Amino acid sequence: MRKTVLITGATSGIGEATAIKFAEASDRLIITGRRKDRLDMLAEHLVTSYDVEVLSLCFDVRVKRDVEKHLGNLPDEWKVIDILINNAGLAVGLGHIDEGDTDDWDRMIDTNVKGLLYVTRVVAPGMVNRGSGHIINISSIAGKDVYENGSVYCASKHAVDALSKSMRIDLLKHGIKVTNIAPGMVETEFSLVRFKGDNEKASAVYTGIEPLRPEDIAEVIFYCATTPDHVCINDLVITPKAQANAFTNYRKTK
User: Fold this and answer.
1) Are the beta carbons of 23 and 6 closer than 8 angstroms?
2) Catalytic hit among 118, 147, 153, 206
3) Whether pLDDT at 198 is above 70
4) Tens of pLDDT along 115-158?
């Protein structure tokens, strides 16, 4: 049976790959993102390549009024959301806590924590009223461990981990599944954003390692979303073979 899937942060990386994965299964898609040109390109690709219904909504999850405006006023035929994938998130900057850029901190907390909450607050009541639904939060291995120079990013992803656990408790009696997925190193725009466009620094992150691909995470998300109704994957950590945790990896040298 076709489902309606809402994916935030769908304009690149994991979000884009996940939209394509669900489109392959002929599900209906609501895709959101800040970059309208990329959002429109993805929507066109999904429609023409997979013949699926797509609703694209351009807004920033950090802005509560825009979240409420777009997701709180969906057309009637799109109001029943079966699966919410809270994917929008980022890391910005690296630095010790005494040297951190507070604007970077605000951007990470506003996107990774508050944005996830704003979206969930609008979507979850409909799931509660229907007694069904699945919320999948994309956290990070940084939500399991902490590492030097990553204090605020790690804190924001630890918050996602905690929210996933508490959401599952809050929504348990309503038959709603909640899944926390914590990827390790995935080659996306992640490092380029963290290093503010410095390609050299961004590419060095993956030197000597075969990182995960966005499609790998999309496969995991799709698996979690398609288990039998009585089965819920609560928490899943996925890393490349060469990564053990947030700060231990093995890099091959020539």
Assistant:
1) no
2) 153
3) no
4) 999 999 999 999 999 999 999 999 999 999 999 999 999 999 99
Instruction: Report how far residue 235's alpha carbon sits from residue 208's, in angstroms, rounded to the nearest whole number.
Output: 28
**Mean pLDDT score of the chain:** 94
The C-alpha angle with vertex 177 and arms to 175 and 181, in degrees rounded to 5, equals 175
Angle at CA 217, nearest 5°, toward 64 and 168? Answer: 55
Give SS3 for 81. Answer: coil
Q: Which of 73, 81, 77 is nearest to 8 (CA)?
A: 81
Give residue 254's pLDDT. 65
Has 153 been annotated as catalytic? yes
| Degrees, nearest 5: CA angle 124-76-229 | 45
Virtual torsion, Cα 246, 19, 7, 108, nearest 10 deg: 40
- Going across the sheet that includes 28-33, the strands are 54-58, 28-33, 4-7, 83-86, 133-138, 176-183, 235-238
Exposed / middle / buried, residue 98 (Cβ in 10 Å: 0-12, 13-18, 19+): exposed
Could you give the 3-state DSSP secondary structure of residue 203? helix
Q: What is the pLDDT of residue 204?
A: 81
Does 194 have pLDDT greater than 90?
A: no
Bridge partner list, 124: none
* Residue 101 CA: distances (Å) to CA of 48, 124, 127: 43, 33, 38
Residue 239 in 3-state DSSP?
coil
The DSSP result for 120-151, as a single string, is HHHHHHHHHHHT-EEEEEE--GGGT---TT-H
